[in-house]
Amino acid sequence: MTVELLAPGGNAAMVEAVLGAGADAVYVGPRGYSRRRSSFELTIPEILDLVPLVHGRGARLRAAFNTLPATAEIPGLLAAVETLAAGGVDDIILTDPGVMAAVRARHPGLPIHASVGCNIYNAADLEFYREAGVTQVVADCRLPAAELRSVKRAGLGLEVLVHATTCFSYIGQCWLSSYTRLGSQSDETGKNHYPGSPNRGGLCWRVCLKEWDLEGGAPPAAGFHLKNDAFFQVREIPSYLEAGVDTLKIQGREYSVDLIARVTAFYRALIDACRAAPADFDAPAWEKRMADLGAARDAERAGRTRELIREGETAQTA
Amino acid sequence: MELWTGVAALDDLTDGSCGPYTGVYLGFPYCRPYPGNLLEAGEDLARAVGFLHRRGQKAFLATPPAPATADLAWIAAAVGRAREAGIDGAYVHNLGLVRLLSRAHPDLPLHAGCFANVYTGLTAGLLAGHGVRRVAPHFELSLAEMRAIGEGTGLEVEVLVHGAMPLSLTDRCHAVTALDQECPLACRGERWLTAGDLRLRTMGQALWSGRDVCLAEHMARLGHASFVFRVESLGRDGAWRRAVGEIYARLLAGEPLAPAAMDELARLAPWGLCNGYYFGLSGRTYVNGRGEVA
Fold first, then answer.
1. CB-based contact (8 Å) between B282 and chain A?
2. Contacts of residue B184 in chain A, CB cutoff 8 Å?
3. Helices (DSSP H) in chain B: which residue ranges?
């Protein structure tokens, strides 16, 4: 019953903090390729600098290329993967199936994880992605237990998000943000960050989190929100361990270092307790322990959402 | 130059509104219980295929974008029935379903839909290996990127030239979720989500742009060997489908865009026009024929 606890590395300080808090692996986002603002991503040299630190703690370093590149950006992406693989990065996360197949052909031994943005809904999807070169699947938050079990039956690694946000849409199947505002901002490597398009590399303006009215027909509805909740999973953890889940992933590169370190430490303790005495697992007690983490997370998230909505509204035709 | 559209039910077809189109995608992929959904209505589907074939038009079956494992069997059965009815191919968003159908029906032409998330020539090429002959590149791509995919793969490339554009996909109907009640048949009426000046239409599992994509002012310069064109008419009435189709059919025949035709397209789009993605801008921006942001 071994499971990998994977924590975010939004910057070098966060990488060091989550390793100290008990993470078995850390994922980082190469700048421009990882669905976050560039301030929560790292350059290729910065990632390579982290390899000795991560490996020195007996952990794994994973690079998330979890955006969908432009065709013209593929040579740069493949070169970045080449550099990272040669420099000791252990695994990569990809979304584009064509890129997966290209990476598999160039690096047959490099584990490829299918991002949650791949939108793997069913057993046939698993076969498609396995043929494309995937070794592990990051499960969509909405996947029911039966679909999770089919991942294991397919012989693929299974990764489950234990702290994340469930967008109102399937992740990777929403471009509402770039519909309202899309920028073009290339860095010195030539990578366009596409501000406003998380699928292509930029940040999301979180348009969905505005207050919405429903018009037409009857009765009308006013002032509701599209369902978009951040969550912690606690009582589900024992069943994940029992089901052979390979990785429990904490999302949150954009949160504060202190908060993510505390979240990592919480899950480290929870997993270790489950392993040591599964029959004694007391879900309400653990949920009580994480309540203050939830409040801190919600406060940080609400502030960032207000900023993003405001920023997205400043020049909507840009 | 081909012009395609989609209809949900038999009544949407037999009103003659699909006359201007080369081919029609049959069925409403975004809500299985949609009344008369050709995706499952066997007899109606056979009538629809016969109706189109008698007019020299192609008929493809449109399949759901996010099927669970439990859905694969009934979708495969629906495609099997559609083949018996003489369908010409299938429109498929889900990559697993692409693989499954390409093995079950190796001679069945497949078109990959917008929710297949085709952003790169590499992925388009991968899909070609699974029997896909046409791809709808993701809406966020520019026309230049779409051309490159066509040139790099030899595949046909679907370009949405007019109509509402899907903006998101989820596992629920927003109209039902927001009202917390049984299905209000939002797909048959017009229900809108609004926030400030942003307006989205809710139809089934997808949210759609309130503004209609429009490339009418650019059609004369749009010609590319790989391009085929689509008018999205799900949720619109027959008069809309026919009027828009006739305008684009004339443009594809080489006629210039008449001012009256542009006025008509604007009249048929009460919440405005957009096409920004095609020019590297936000999706709801509109670029006119002079290249100006209107």
1. yes
2. 217
3. 10-14, 42-54, 69-84, 95-104, 121-128, 143-153, 174-179, 238-252, 259-267
- Which of B92, B95, B176 to mutate: most A Cβ within 10 Å? B95
CB contact under 8 A, A98 and B120: yes
- Name the pTM for this structure: 0.95
Residue A80 pLDDT > 50, yes or no? yes
Give the residue from B30, B63, B72, B168 with the most A CB atoms within 10 Å of its CB, the best one to mutate. B168
Task: For chain B, positions 36-65, list CB contacts with chain A under 8 A.
Answer: 65
Enumerate domains of chain B plus CATH numbers. Answer: 3-166+208-274 (3.20.20.70)
Contact at CB, B69 and A146, closer than 8 angstroms? yes
Residues of A in Cβ contact (< 8 Å) with B287: none
- Cβ-Cβ contacts under 8 Å, B155 against chain A: none
High-pLDDT (> 70) share of chain B, %: 97
- pLDDT at residue A318 above 60? no
Residue of A nearest to B69 (CA): A122
ipTM: 0.95
State pLDDT tens for residues B76-128: 999 999 999 999 999 999 999 999 999 999 999 999 999 999 999 999 999 99
pLDDT, tens only, B138-174: 999 999 999 999 999 999 999 999 999 999 999 888 7
